[in-house]
Amino acid sequence: MTSHRCAILDDYQNVALKMADWSKVTGDVDIKVFSEHLGGADNVVKALQGFDIVCAMRERTGFPRAVIEKLPDLKLLITTGMRNASIDVAAAKERGVLVAARPASAIPPPASPSG
């Protein structure tokens, strides 16, 4: 039985599960990939209920105070890149949500679907 739920957001190319070795956490973490953008705040809140870990791809999905406050299970918010203007870090800190970032990689990101 898994003890955590992790949402990977905006993986429109379905590459997130191929870009890292997730096998070490599969027994403890139930991972759900959202390949389509969730849309506005209400949709984000609805889709992410019950997830305690969220991996946000850059600034595609916003996490303003209003969203963070409606996600009571959220404990860890991971973003690709060291800066993400769409996350209200102060609101996350107030709610006890750890915001983690990964430094930029030498490997360029995949091209967007539009080319």
Uncertain stretches: none
Can you write the helix and strand succession as a string?
A: EEHEHEHE
How much helix, percentage-wise, in residues? Answer: 10-25%
The fraction of residues in strands falls at 15-25%
CATH topology-level name: Rossmann fold
* CATH superfamily membership: NAD(P)-binding Rossmann-like Domain
Count of the domains: 1
Distance between the termini: 40 Å
**Strand segment count:** 5
Shape: globular
Query: What is the residue-averaged pLDDT?
Result: 87
What does the main sheet amount to?
5 strands, parallel
| Whole-angstrom Rg | 14 Å
List the SSEs and their pairings.
Elements: E1 4-8, E2 29-33, H1 41-47, E3 53-56, H2 65-68, E4 76-80, H3 89-94, E5 98-102
Parallel strand pairs: 1-2, 1-3, 3-4, 4-5
Walk me through this protein's architecture.
The structure is a single chain. With about 120 residues, the protein is of the alpha/beta class. It has a single domain, classed as 3-Layer(aba) Sandwich (Rossmann fold), CATH 3.40.50. Helix content is about 15%, strand content about 20%. It has a five-stranded parallel beta sheet.
